[in-house]
Design a protein that fits this description.
Length: 532
């Protein structure tokens, strides 16, 4: 029996996972797999950027999932540490090691166990994220604000708003006062739109089961000594996660290496520009453009796409003319799908002007704050989050004992004033915000910097997104086309969701299942989000 040819568009988590699942266990006997990656790197937004001996995680990626298939898969690619990492040793940190696991001090292909610390920066003060019920929280808010928050929450318990937008979704779970403090301004920073015009579906996928009730439950669990492990509990309350020694890109570079060993052909700098159909209405081939601007035709039996839906439909519309044109209403929906783009500005600094007032020991001279992320709810600055890469993995920073490597995350639109800034102007803008917030004391503390831009980082939930079900139905009509991943489904998927969509697509190809409901249902089923 001849092999079935499968073309995979995109070398991110979904695409590389699909190739792996098709070819593992001698799958090369049955499938001829080609992966087309438009850039020169693997991992998409989950890649790791190298600069000046340091590594930058684009967007921050905590490796945890409630899907055991994903957790087992990650551990298979990069085994869990079996000995203390550099910072474990320096800080006398004790946590469970994997029996027989590799030593991160001598082995590169290893997954670290990390403790998550994230806080909110609001009016010059730090709050736990999610908000915890600690004396320091009440002190930071003050008596009057605490009373306002408390009564506002009680009101939300008895007066539920219709959840037809993200604003009402938040108010129902936190009360209007807390929503105004920590959600309204930050959400508008993230999306460039007020929460009242964004679908509540975004909240159900990202905030999921989090509410004051969930925070109380979590606080009670800590009080009685209940420990959560990676993948257990609500997403935003996860305290332990896994992390590749050299950042998320290391995992996807390793997966790509395995894919090629299994028999996959991976072509970098291959931008899909046209998609051709058969007379029967299936996908016949793709045309990709190489780094030299030359076009190549690649035929296939099955096609798995993680490219942005907007670009996918444009490519179908640009295909051969021996077919019906893309219906005008489908093209209109695809053209109107909104995205939010992303800029990270990295700074290597001598010190942070922030004191570690927690009981968590940290590296550095002087010691740094323990945060992985700092969420900046202050609307007087544009920055949305600050990553402290030292705390993700000590191996991301060349001189982790004496330097702090941070990343300022900005949300913007491709082509707007911030996106179009030169590297020098964007770095200067970010440096001034660091000073304004008091994160650094002087520009002289900055030793190095780097600006990185990411297109279509966040599929957004407004404008023509409300008609996306019609577009999904049309895309599914091609039969041999499977849309996977964050941008492939125009859904704010985490890495594990993107991988799960690839699992489902590959399962359909192998079994011959025709409907794709299972592929599209990843990250929509409420049951997926419930605690184990």
């Amino acid at each position: 029996m001849s092999k079935k040819s499968v073309v995979i568009i995109g070398g991110g988590p979904a695409g590389l996972t699909a190739a792996y699942e098709l070819l593992k266990d001698k799958g090369a006997q049955d499938y001829d797999v080609t992966v087309l990656e438009a850039s020169g790197e693997f991992g998409g937004i989950s890649r790791t950027v190298r600069h000046g001996g340091n590594r930058m995680d684009i967007g921050g990626h905590r490796f945890f999932s409630k899907d055991d298939r994903v957790m087992d898969w990650w551990k298979m690619i990069l085994p869990l540490q079996g000995a203390p990492s550099y910072d474990d040793k320096k800080l006398n940190r004790d946590h469970d090691m994997e029996p027989g696991g590799p030593d991160p001090e001598t082995t590169d292909e290893v997954m670290l166990k990390r403790h998550r610390v994230s806080r909110i920066y609001w009016h010059g003060k730090f709050f736990d994220y999610p908000v915890s019920l600690k004396p320091q929280t009440l002190k930071n808010m003050g008596f009057l604000q605490t009373m306002k928050v408390g009564f506002s929450y009680l009101k939300s318990l008895v007066h539920k708003l219709p959840e037809d937008n993200l604003e009402n979704f938040y108010i129902n779970r936190f009360g209007k006062a807390l929503y105004g403090m920590f959600f309204e301004g930050y959400t508008e920073k993230l999306w460039g739109r007020h929460p009242s015009v964004i679908s509540a579906d975004w909240g159900s996928q990202r905030v999921k089961g989090i509410s004051i009730k969930a925070v109380l439950k979590d606080a009670w669990g800590k009080l009685v000594g209940k420990q959560k492990q990676a993948g257990e509990g609500e997403t935003s309350l996860i305290e332990e996660f896994w992390y590749p020694k050299y950042g998320p890109g290391q995992l996807w570079e390793t997966v790509a290496k395995h894919d090629e060993e299994f028999g996959a052909k991976i072509i970098k700098h291959a931008e899909v520009v046209k998609i051709n159909e058969t007379p029967e209405g299936k996908i016949a081939s793709v045309i990709y453009r190489d780094v030299n601007g030359l076009d190549h035709v690649l035929e296939g039996d099955e096609f798995i796409s993680s490219m942005p839906v907007k670009d996918l439909v444009d490519s179908i519309a640009a295909g051969d003319q021996n077919k019906e044109p893309v219906p005008a209403d489908m093209k209109k929906i695809a053209d109107g799908l909104p995205y939010r783009d992303f800029v990270t500005v990295g700074f290597l600094v001598d010190r942070l002007n922030l004191k570690n007032e927690t009981d968590i020991p940290t590296l550095g001279n002087p010691p740094i704050v323990p945060d992985c992320w700092i969420y900046v709810q202050d609307t007087s600055v544009k920055v949305g989050r600050i990553q402290v890469f030292n705390n993700w993995s000590p191996y991301l920073v060349q001189d982790v004992d004496n330097k702090v490597w941070i990343g300022l995350e900005y949300f913007c639109n491709e082509g707007d004033d911030f996106w179009n800034m030169s590297d020098e102007a964007a770095i200067d803008f970010a440096a001034k915000e660091l000073l304004k917030m008091g994160v650094i004391a002087s520009k002289n503390d900055i030793q190095d910097s780097h600006r990185e831009r990411v297109k279509k980082a966040y599929p957004a939930y407004f404008d023509t997104w409300y008609q996306i079900d019609d577009l999904i139905k049309w895309l599914d009509s091609f039969g041999n086309l499977y849309c996977v991943g964050r941008n492939g489904q125009h859904r704010y998927n985490n890495m594990d969701h993107s991988m799960a969509s690839a699992f489902e697509a590959v399962g359909n190809i192998k079994s011959g299942r025709e409907d794709k409901k299972n592929v599209w249902s990843v990250n929509t089923d409420k049951g997926y989000h419930e605690s184990k």
